[in-house]
Amino acid sequence: MELLKERIKKDGKVRSGNVLKVDSFLNHQMDIKLFEQIGKEFKRRFADCPINKILTIESSGIGIASIAAQSFDVPVVFAKKNTTKNIDGALYSAQIESFTHGKVYNVIVAREFLNPCDNVLIIDDFLANGKALMGLSKIVEKSGAKLCGAGIVIEKGFQEGGKLLRASGMRIESLAIIKSMTPDGEIIFED
Amino acid sequence: MELLKERIKKDGKVRSGNVLKVDSFLNHQMDIKLFEQIGKEFKRRFADCPINKILTIESSGIGIASIAAQSFDVPVVFAKKNTTKNIDGALYSAQIESFTHGKVYNVIVAREFLNPCDNVLIIDDFLANGKALMGLSKIVEKSGAKLCGAGIVIEKGFQEGGKLLRASGMRIESLAIIKSMTPDGEIIFED
To answer: Would you call B62 and A67 a contact, using CB atoms and an 8 Å cutoff?
Structure first.
């Protein structure tokens, strides 16, 4: 998606540890007009799938998934990272190791919001080592729902997540795949 | 907002400790079509304000704020509850005591995303004791931006947050104000 790649080149900042900061438009400040284009692109790529629900994970996925949901005309469920007072009853859960936060956490989805008749699209902002996506796909599997695929805004193609998950049979559509990032800030995309 | 009140009566569940579960449409599964109506109502109520930025807080506020942002044609900034690798540089921060989680946490916004020329609308899903809203308004104040007001989806009118903050001069527009909830599940709204 050219518009997105241009925006990443313009406003993305490369930091040590293979961190790409895109917080001016994607995951701290959110450019909702860009999200509308991202949502339309996900719909175009998954037009062949009978998606009736979008699953994402707090927090950075929620804004993107909410706007994309308008193109699919479906509700969104976001997986929660901590069990709170307001979640009770039966849950699906999975463990996820976070690259960004450097720790392992549980994610949960209330059982009532995923069931075997659902056709689920997972949406997230980043795909790097793939742990979040693996956790979410485990939750979909436990629920008996069908996973149609995953829509990712930015994939770090130089990390192994995308390769591993595609090899396992998951359909992944990433709108920008980064081939490499240099310490002086150059970002090169895969074709 | 009648549509919202009807939905709360239909799908809201009263739990012990004055907890209102609305996770089937507001803060776990999200009814994006309802969010569109909520966003339009916020725009109608704040039509007199030159709002150029919406501020919310992760996680439950993000979906609502993202959809509402379409009615205002502005970007959204969401305050983060934990400092991560991806946030660096200068920050505005405030401490918030969470009713839901029973703990105190720091919320932060990167300085570059709030500045004195901004006219800010805060959006959140709930207003109860008002701690989140107080924290967010402190961040707006520190930035030098103008706070136009706060748009709240559900206010628990029987808790003190709304009264205290309105008395302090904050403009708050709550789309559904709950007067009382009974243990057998009855929900009564203020007129």
So the answer is: no
**Interface contact A59, partner B, CB < 8 A:** yes
SS3 state of residue B163: helix
Question: In 3-state terms, what secondary structure has residue B127?
Answer: strand
Residue-wise pLDDT for A147-185, tens only, equals: 999 999 999 999 999 999 999 999 999 999 999 999 899
CA of B169 to nearest chain A CA: how many angstroms apart?
A: 27
More confident site: B8 or B89: B8
Partner-chain contact A88 B15, CB within 8 Å: yes
Interface contact A13, partner B, CB < 8 A: no
Strands of the B146-156 sheet, one edge to the other: A29-30, B76-79, B53-57, B119-127, B146-156, B172-181, B187-189
Among B residues 93-152, those touching chain A with beta carbons less than 8 Å apart: 100-102, 109-110, 112-113
Instruction: For residue B176, count CB atoms less than 10 angstroms from its CB and return exposed for 0-12, middle for 13-18, buried for 19 or more.
Output: buried
Contact predicate B86/A100, CB 8 Å:
yes
Rounded Cα gap, residues B94 and B103, in angstroms: 14
Please tell me which residue of chain B has the smallest CA distance to A72.
B32
Burial class (CB within 10 angstroms; exposed 0-12, middle 13-18, buried 19+) of B83: middle
ipTM of the complex: 0.96
State the sign of the Cα–Cα–Cα–Cα dihedral A141, A147, A152, A158: positive
Touching A: B residues 77-96, CB under 8 Å: 77-78, 80, 82, 84-88
Smallest Cα–Cα separation from A142: which of A78, A95, A94, A81? Answer: A94
